[in-house]
Amino acid sequence: MRILAIDPFHGAAGDMFLGALLGLGADRDAVIRVMESVVATPTIEVVSRAGIQSIKIHTHAGPASRTLEEVIARVRSSSAPDVVIARAEAVFQRIASAEQSIHGRMEHFHEVGADDAIADVLGSCMAMYTISPDLVRVFPVATGTGMVRMEHGMYPVPAPATAAILAAGGLQVILGGGNGELCTPTGAALLAEFSSGIHSLPPARLDVTSYGAGDRDDPHTPNVLRMMLLTVPEEPGGDEVDILETNVDDVPGEVIGYLLEKLMESGARDASATPLTMKKGRPGHLIRVICRPGDAERLSILIARETGTLGVRCIPAVHRFIADRRIEEIEITVDNFSGKFPVKYGIIEGSCYTLKAEYEHVCRFARQHNLPVTQVMRTVEDEAWKKEHQRQDFRQ
């Protein structure tokens, strides 16, 4: 399992968020293409912030004032994949809801309707899509102190909209951390949108650390957003899990689909919904979740809030068999297009009994080269099986 840890010890802004993701290894070409569809070609450079090398983004966009509808239309006109556009829309919806809660209505975005914010949000969502972590842990957000000049005059830090976004997103904050506005509404909305809501991390291997640079270069405190990509090793042999279940008969299918996705983002090992016939012949669904014992209470609360159910059954400490596994990279060529793909192998008593190419990588390659995803998947797995059979023949 890969976990993205975001440490906004000196706040967050859209360009800082994107810069840090690029430093982690997000697909730079894909990000630039998406940003170019709404602004001029951005400049990406390595700068120093209080001695820390970090990535700075320049969108070269001017100011603009737009309504939510105009911003959404601009986002939808981009070249981003549909799933990226949907996440970008959700980010701006968070900002719009916060503005409306503060001002009573939202005629237009007060601070974030310009093309630079749109490009930063789209670029960040695209970068996150190419990294695709299993979970995102957001550490407490430093907001800064003092006053900041905005469209309607001087406001206290954190700005009212920023505070509303952080509160709605359930993010922990540090009311301070430096002078001035450290966390912007765009930065707060990106943190809230991608946070998985977890407040602790298991032991993990730290794979890479990166820093996204802000505008100011404070000589005393690095004006950067730090991100760390962690890998939690699979537990060999087996482990213990809890099983959560509840029956629902008045929840729309769209809500169930949203719940399953949110459960997986929040740390569930698996989540499913099975149609069933309930008392008095009513159609319903059995929602079943497999999770670590320490996550059972938190995920049960999530199920209750999203479905309105009054009870979630917990079957504790069920032993789960786990096959040994390994991940290898397979290189293939399809219609003259070459690529490398991670493949997960299942091992019993030293022999591979199943293997599967990682879907997100296959899907990204197929979309990029306009190829059928089934063709790419089959080619990767055929090559993986070929290499595995050669390995087994060699051992014999």
From TrEMBL:
Keywords: Lyase, Nickel. GO terms for molecular function: lyase activity; nickel cation binding. Pfam families: Ni_insertion (PF01969). InterPro entries: Ni_insertion (IPR002822). HAMAP family: LarC. Belongs to the LarC family. This is Putative nickel insertion protein. It comes from Methanospirillum lacunae.
